TrEMBL record:
Organism this protein belongs to: Glutinoglossum americanum
Domain of life: Eukaryota
Name recorded for this polypeptide: L-type lectin-like domain-containing protein
Membrane-crossing segments per the record: 291-315
MF (Gene Ontology): D-mannose binding
Gene3D superfamilies, per database record: 2.60.120.200
Organism placement in taxonomy: Eukaryota, Fungi, Dikarya, Ascomycota, Pezizomycotina
SUPFAM superfamilies documented for this protein: Concanavalin A-like lectins/glucanases
Membrane topology: Single-pass type I membrane protein
Swiss-Prot/TrEMBL keywords: Membrane, Signal, Transmembrane, Transmembrane helix
Signal sequence segment: none
One BP annotation, GO: endoplasmic reticulum to Golgi vesicle-mediated transport
Length: 324
């Protein structure tokens, strides 16, 4: 009988500790200036400190980085100079795809790959890449039953070729149809990655500040050293593919009980690339991100309290019985 009551005591205290742990852990972020790009894009010497660009890419300092103009047979790219070493991260990019033709193409790509700055046939960048490619495909080559534009993710192993003829059907990890071309509001993509856990893509194209989930893929493992890039391509048909801004954040667990980062390693990793610690930290943004976690915590607290109450009641019953 004593054993049973001890077990109840133990389980309730474990539950209590768990609830406290959840309450005190929250997600913080550090802005990675190395992977962030905004107007005027270039410094005085017409270079970008943290990005290289090439191919047909042109930059207009007050407006955009234009990967392709609305002309046939163009390829342009933009790649970070240093790899993205953060364990968990979020990339938000504002882009614009627009043009005059009734028919248009071919689309653009976001890359998190081992390769960088190499022009090629997959939306302007190299094929047989290793890492992640997100394709914003505006021209349907051959995918019956799928509405275009189509946004999809491919995980490249360094050997597999992009399935060009079927718009990447053979390579698709996940994807969605979305009217990301000529939208009424600024079009944005937000890619969130938690190492070895999941990859999530949200898109803004319907209304401002309204994010539509494109996909969440689990068990995604990306190369530990990978560069962030963008590229675009036109063929016979063309479009303007513009990058307006890029904002990247390193996400890390913050445990308020110990007063330090849950995993200090990657917080300092990212600051070593990101420059001065906390420079880009926006407390308002931090707060607005917190609501999802607050809700989850609330649910866990309620579950924890019910569990604790049930455990305690059962333990008391046992105590009473053992007295008689
Ligand atoms: Ca296509």
């Amino acid at each position: 009988m004593l054993m049973v009551s001890k077990a109840y005591q133990l389980s309730t205290s474990i539950l209590g500790v768990f609830v406290c742990e959840v309450l005190l852990t929250s997600w913080k972020y550090i802005q990675l200036r190395t992977h962030t790009l905004t107007t005027p894009y270039l410094t005085g010497d017409l270079q970008s400190r943290w990005f290289d660009f090439g191919g047909d890419t042109i930059i207009r300092a007050d407006k955009y980085v234009r990967l392709t103009s609305d002309r046939p047979s163009q390829q342009g790219w933009l790649f970070s100079r240093v790899p993205l070493t953060a364990t968990n991260w979020e990339i938000e990019v504002e882009f614009k795809i627009d043009g005059n033709g009734n028919l248009h193409g071919d689309g653009m790509a976001l890359w998190v790959t081992k390769q960088r700055a190499t022009q090629g046939p997959v939306f302007g960048s190299t094929d047989q890449f290793e890492g992640l490619g997100i394709f914003f495909d505006t021209y349907k080559n051959n995918r019956p039953g799928v509405t275009f534009p189509y946004v999809m993710a491919m995980l490249g192993d360094g050997k597999t070729k992009y399935d060009h003829g079927n718009d990447g059907k053979a390579n698709e990890l996940a994807g969605c149809s979305a009217r990301i071309r000529k939208a009424d509001v600024p079009t944005k993509a937000r890619l969130t990655y938690f190492q070895d856990s999941y990859l999530k893509l949200d898109l803004q194209y319907r209304r401002e500040d309204e994010w539509t989930e494109c996909f969440t893929a689990s068990d995604v493992r990306l190369p530990s050293v990978a560069y962030l890039g963008f590229s675009a391509e036109t063929g016979e048909l063309s479009d303007e593919h513009d990058i307006i801004s890029v904002s990247t954040k390193s996400l890390y667990e913050h445990n308020t009980a110990s007063g330090s980062g849950g995993r200090p390693g990657h917080a300092s990793d990212s600051t070593s690339w990101g420059g001065k610690k906390g420079k880009g930290y926006d407390p308002n943004r931090g707060k607005s991100r917190g609501w999802g976690w607050v809700f989850i915590k609330l649910v866990l607290v309620v579950v924890g309290c019910i569990g604790a109450y049930v455990g305690y009641t059962a333990w008391r019953t046992q105590q009473r019985r053992s007295r008689f």
